[in-house]
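Marked as duplicate of an earlier ticket. Keeping the data here for the record.
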Amino acid sequence: MFVLGESFHIDYLYIRVHWIRNMNKQASFYVSRMRVPYTLIWLVLDGELLVEINGEQYIATRGDLIMCPPNTQFELIPQGSEDRIHYLSFCADLKISNMDLVSLYGLPTLVSVNPSDKLEKWIYEWKMLIEEFDHFGELVGEKASQQGDEGMNTYLLHTDIPIHYCGLQGLIYRWVQQWLTTLRHMLPDEPLRFDHRVMKVCDYVRERLEQPLHLQELADHVHISVSQLSHLFLETLGTAPMEFVRRSRIDYAKQMLLNNTLSLREIAERIGYEDQSQLSRAFRRAEGISPSQYRKNLALSRMNI
């Protein structure tokens, strides 16, 4: 009889939806050039969606799927017509450990999905997920508003919230299953061979971003030499261990910048920077703009993504 043990590394699969929408807009709308720390997926139902990703333009029409990995520069370009664009939008963390699924599976930016019963079923489930996601948001907002003044320092987890959340998670996992099933003919059977020591260090880093981290400390955590750890990271993730630390801090900062209630000082403290100015310098080096400008750009654009 099968027992799910620690060696079953699919446990590193991480799925968390940030927003999912049914978008129906005029062709003249646009989103200025930016990056978000999540995977973006769009499915065009009608009209044309003009997108620039990493400097290359794509025109997506009915049945076309656009996939944009996290931290990829993109822009939605306006079109000079009175036509409308109807598309479904999905924004989420879709990862196995630190690798997003779009990059892990080497998926192309633009895919034309052949009309089929599977596609129609996926669209139906996508719309059903949107409805349930919006309903869950209304429920959370309703229960939060009922807390009154107590909500300033505490949060009461109403029983209805985990009940509805479990149902929502089931729909999310089914959506991901349909997405991968639709693209199964394009997916490699074995996209990556994981080394458990690399995964263990990644977990260690994510749990301690607010603390100073050193290369020797990371190597000691999995009982190997610094040079061996560096080799394993390069082979598995294509980056150096300390670059992974820096990138993880910036990515987490970008996630927290979505929350307008956190000050830059608070964000800096949560990811191990001494003060706001150190965060700003590191963020500008990595992203080319200040954290404040990134937050402003995202606030202006996120409802159209």
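See parent ticket for discussion. The chain is about 45% helix and 20% strand.
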